[in-house]
Amino acid sequence: MTSEHGDTRHDPVGASARAALAHLELLVTRRLDGVLNGDHRGLLPGPGTEPGEARPYEPGDDVRSMDWSVTARTTEPHIRQTIADRELETWLVVDLSSSIDVEGRYGSKRRLVEAVVATVGFLSAVGGSRVGMVLTGDGRPRVLPATGGRDHVRRLLDEVSRSPAEVSAGGTLEDALKSVRNTARRHGLVAVVSDFLGDTTWERSLRVLGARHEFLAVHVADPLDIALPAVGAALLQDPATGEVLEVDVDDALAADYRRAADAHRADVHSALRRCGAPVLALRTDRDWVRDVIDYVGVRRQGGYPTGENLTRDLPDDGEGGA
């Protein structure tokens, strides 16, 4: 594929990237689709508008789906299942800020972004459903119109893989959400993928979208976004400006960093809750497939993940070096 970033058909690095994306497709379609099969809409738990069959109530079921007429007739609690809507429109909003390419011990967060695009895309682009994508960018968002089919999802993956992590005024996450509002006319799912390290100026735009769409917020993170180990003298680089600082990371500085990171993350997740967006939390040092399966399990039981598991089981300080 040729784009403004150049033709990578004969580039060994490009060939390697394409092989990795092909492997990612197989992982999603064989492992995830097999586990998540049934009446689901991508990563949504599956409630739709079509009434389905009634079945006996099981512990953990959403009591809001109780079928009282069947319950009264059988004298046993029953819930009414619903059939997932088909031919829906899904929009991926991908935040490609410069921090997405910071290489930590476990790789960059872009790998997780690609995994999310593959998961949402391949699980959603079935049965006539369409998938579109908006990328943050340099001066303006990039909009890829919603279309159906696996070939289209492969193109979305390729764009995410090769697009530079450059965001400037006019192309921010807030601007990308506004683009979705102007482009997505049908009710559907909006999946916002970001490391959410910036200000929460996007909250109002996301909340406005809630009048028409359902949400999924995917918070991708590296352990270093959460805690900085006390490693002594270290060189730290600002990914946005390129500025490099030499600092002495002692216990006090590491504690201050952790407190500031915790406070910012709490602000982000509170804003997402106010917008009605459940949070799928992924981390570079964990098995993202397992995290996706756990998320869907909670949603199918009527739960509302808020991203609190993002800080669970962090690597030891001695293993999380910069």
What is this entry, summarized?
Helices cover 37% and strands 21% of the residues. With 322 residues, the protein is an alpha/beta fold.
Tell me what the structure shows.
With 322 residues, this protein is α/β, with parallel strands linked by helices. It has helices at 12-35, 68-74, 110-124, 150-162, 173-183, 203-209, 223-226, 251-275, 288-300, and strands at residues 2-3, 6-7, 50-56, 78-83, 89-94, 130-135, 142-147, 188-194, 214-221, 232-237, 244-249, 279-283.
Defining key terms:
single chain, 322 residues, alpha/beta, 6-stranded mixed β-sheet, 12 strands, 37% helix, globular, disordered N terminus, disordered C terminus
Percent helix:
25-40%
Q: What value does the average pLDDT take?
A: 84
Number of strands: 12
State which percent range the strand residues make up: 15-25%
Helix and strand composition category: alpha/beta
Report the total helices. 9
**Major beta sheet summary:** 6 strands, mixed
Secondary-structure map with pairings?
Blueprint: E1 2-3, E2 6-7, H1 12-35, E3 50-56, H2 68-74, E4 78-83, E5 89-94, H3 110-124, E6 130-135, E7 142-147, H4 150-162, H5 173-183, E8 188-194, H6 203-209, E9 214-221, H7 223-226, E10 232-237, E11 244-249, H8 251-275, E12 279-283, H9 288-300
Parallel strand pairs: 5-6, 5-8, 8-9, 9-12
Antiparallel strand pairs: 1-2, 3-4, 6-7, 10-11
Helix pairs in contact: 1-3, 1-4, 3-4, 5-6, 6-8
